[in-house]
């Protein structure tokens, strides 16, 4: 089973995960302000940094893990991205963070520190390639834009910014999922089986980075879904920096299709339902347009609580990168499936007929080609002139978020080589 580069749900899974092999020792390791950079020189460059490519980690819980990142980039079973870059004489710098849930601006400072170190260590004058996976594309986008606007910072000397399934127009965290997590954390955070997972999940959804990334956010189950104040402030600050770095080529890829064809998930369908020792007829539905009850939450012997939305698009089924949580038994619970695991851990019976996953990063967000709140834009074919990127490519199928494939990876390598 292919492993994602950014393992979003991994640290909060109530089920054991696939053991990740140990990454090879880096040739160099740079302690950074707020993170770490692991340097792998191309065999063609004799342990010198000649043509640096900085690849940033994205959003997840806790500290970046080199083993997970290396596995997703190089041992994913489809395309050896690092080896292919090395074969072109590119040196790979994997950028990780002490706290992947920190505000984007904070981790952007770590990215700037990494860029400065790369420029100082570089032999020759080859320009850099800087980018990242998932939120890492946003972090590096902000960092490079700031370096262009802040006169106290050096020239970033970067030729290409790349983003891999990054939420340029926001990410989708199902409102029903958010509501269940808030409800479960309030009622079962001391549970001996899944209490730790619930506390971690709640903290992840309520973290600064999640609030900045999510297009719709609720702080509690009865909130009205809307952009968090943190997201509004971040977008304003990004716009003040010009929105994008300008003195380079912007490229990106999506793990979803550009044809407008969705992933097959129907709106207003019951995604997961649990009933048993701790829950009574508790269910989550996929998102539909118009006024909708997206979840019914009820603690055993408690009062039922309906969760309402209004005016949202049918986004669970939209084309785009999918939530993923690969397990050792070959299953992938995704997003709604993760809720099912938590319901089971709370000693309930979960309906077998359920929808495991949903769209996470709509294709139009990953390639900056439209507003994800727009139902028509979500399901409309993406044309090159619609994107804010200079070049992009979308996957030929809707696949798990940040899955490295030959289709996408080879396109990036070709773009890097042709831009230098």
How would you characterize the overall build of this protein?
With 420 residues, the chain is an alpha/beta fold. 30% of the residues lie in helices and 19% in strands. It is built from twelve helices and 15 strands. It has helices at residues 66-74, 81-87, 104-121, 135-149, 175-188, 195-205, 208-213, 229-240, 336-345, 363-366, 375-378, 406-419, and strands spanning 28-32, 35-40, 52-56, 91-97, 128-133, 158-164, 249-254, 270-276, 282-285, 292-297, 305-309, 320-322, 348-350, 359-362, 391-394. The protein has an eight-stranded mixed β-sheet, with helices on both faces. It has a five-stranded antiparallel β-sheet with strand order 11-10-9-8-13, covered by helices on one side. Strand 10 (292-297) and strand 11 form a beta hairpin. Helix 3 (104-121) packs across helix 4 and helix 5 (175-188) crosses helix 6. The protein is globular and about 70 Å long. It starts with 27 loop residues before the first strand and ends with a helix.
Uncertain runs with pLDDT below 50, 5 residues or more? none
**Arrangement of strands in the largest sheet:** 1-2-4-3-5-6-7-15
Say what oligomer this is: single chain
Structural class: alpha/beta
List the secondary-structure elements in sequence, H or E: EEEHHEHEHEHHHHEEEEEEHEEHHEH
The percent range for helix content is: 25-40%
Distance between the termini: 34 Å
Envelope shape: globular
The helix tally amounts to: 12
Mean pLDDT: 97
Q: Mind summarizing the main beta sheet?
A: 8 strands, mixed
Instruction: Please indicate the percent range of residues in DSSP E strands (runs of 2 or more).
Output: 15-25%
Radius of gyration: 21 Å
Count of strand segments: 15
């Amino acid at each position: 089973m292919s492993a994602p580069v950014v393992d979003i749900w991994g640290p909060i899974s109530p089920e054991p995960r696939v053991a990740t092999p140990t990454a090879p020792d880096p040739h160099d390791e740079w302690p950074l302000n707020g993170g770490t950079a692991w340097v792998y020189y191309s065999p063609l460059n004799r342990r010198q940094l000649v043509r640096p490519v900085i690849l940033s980690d994205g959003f997840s819980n806790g500290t970046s893990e080199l083993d997970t990142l290396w596995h997703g980039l190089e041992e994913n079973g489809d395309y050896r991205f690092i080896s292919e870059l090395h074969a072109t004489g590119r040196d790979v710098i994997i950028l990780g963070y002490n706290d992947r849930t920190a505000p984007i601006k904070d981790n952007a400072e770590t990215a700037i520190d990494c860029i400065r170190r790369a420029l100082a260590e570089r032999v020759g004058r080859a320009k850099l390639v800087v980018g990242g996976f998932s939120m890492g594309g946003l972090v590096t986008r902000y960092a490079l834009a700031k370096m262009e606007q802040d006169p106290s910072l050096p020239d970033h000397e970067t030729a290409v910014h790349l983003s891999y399934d990054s939420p340029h127009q926001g990410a989708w965290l199902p409102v029903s999922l958010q509501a269940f997590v808030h409800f479960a954390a309030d009622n079962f955070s001391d549970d001996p089986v899944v209490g730790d997972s619930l506390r971690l999940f709640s903290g992840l959804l309520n973290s600064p980075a999640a609030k900045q990334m999510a297009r719709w956010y609720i702080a509690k189950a009865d909130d009205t879904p809307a952009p968090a104040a943190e997201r509004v402030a971040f977008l304003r600050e990004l716009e003040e920096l010009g929105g994008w770095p300008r003195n380079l080529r912007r490229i990106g890829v999506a793990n979803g299709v550009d044809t407008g064809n969705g992933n097959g998930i129907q709106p207003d369908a019951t995604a997961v339902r649990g009933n048993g020792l701790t829950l009574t007829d508790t269910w989550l539905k996929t998102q539909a347009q118009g006024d909708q009850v997206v979840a019914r939450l009820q603690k055993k012997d408690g009062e039922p609580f309906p969760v309402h939305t209004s005016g949202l698009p049918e986004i669970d089924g939209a084309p785009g990168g999918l939530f993923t949580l690969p397990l050792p038994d070959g299953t992938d619970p995704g997003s709604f499936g993760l809720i099912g695991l938590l319901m089971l851990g709370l000693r309930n019976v979960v309906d077998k007929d359920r929808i495991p996953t949903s769209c996470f990063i709509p294709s139009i967000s990953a390639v900056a080609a439209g507003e994800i709140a727009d139902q028509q834009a979500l399901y409309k074919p993406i044309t090159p002139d619609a994107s804010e990127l200079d070049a992009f490519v979308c996957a030929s199928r809707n696949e798990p978020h940040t899955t490295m494939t030959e289709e996408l990876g080879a396109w990036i390598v070709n773009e890097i080589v042709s831009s230098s």
